[in-house]
Prior knowledge:
This protein is of the alpha+beta class. The protein is built from six helices and nine strands; from the N terminus they run E-E-E-H-E-H-E-H-E-E-E-E-H-H-H. The longest helix is centred in the last third of the chain and has 28 residues, at 185-212.
Amino acid sequence: MFAEAAQGHELVEWLPHEGPAPAIDGFGAAIVFGAEAQVDQEEAFPWLRPEKRVVGELLARGTPVLGVCFGSQLLAELAGAEVRRAAEPEIGWYGVELTPEGSADPLLGFLPERFESLQWHHYEWLLPAGAVGLARSARCLQAFRLEGRPVWGVQFHPEVTEADYSSWLDEFSDDPGAVATGLDPEAVRTETAGKIAAWNDVGRGIAERFLATTA
Length: 215
């Protein structure tokens, strides 16, 4: 998703598996969301190559970029970091703690030092060289910023609605990694129903602060 840095942001959406990339001249910011693919699956998902080219060009131009889940992994890879399968996936609600740098960060600093986050990922990234770690869970790093640049990656899912997450849970049994966790998807669904409204407020706060960096 790309947004023009102006009041009344113009929104341009691109689904890489459905068509060629739009021309990015004049784009004020970009948000890179999740995907069914992992960053190392270019052979299985050929659309990964053009997506990586586009995001790499945006980074080269100094365009503000926010990567979410897969998007954060893609940013980490482009910044030279290792992206790998996590020792354990995170699916459902997990505690996250901000680092001191995270508490001072313009994007995440409005959050409490410890908060619950909604997750669904099997891969993790290591901190890119020159990046600042902003948050982590008990299992892995959760947020970073490239030093001196308006580029952030968050591993958790601040953008997901209840309907979105429910649709993922509907396909829980088709995800071998999810099944292997032993989680009860209906218990996760019930927990999400009670927590998603406040979590969506967090997502809106992050989006508003990200767009403010483009002004």
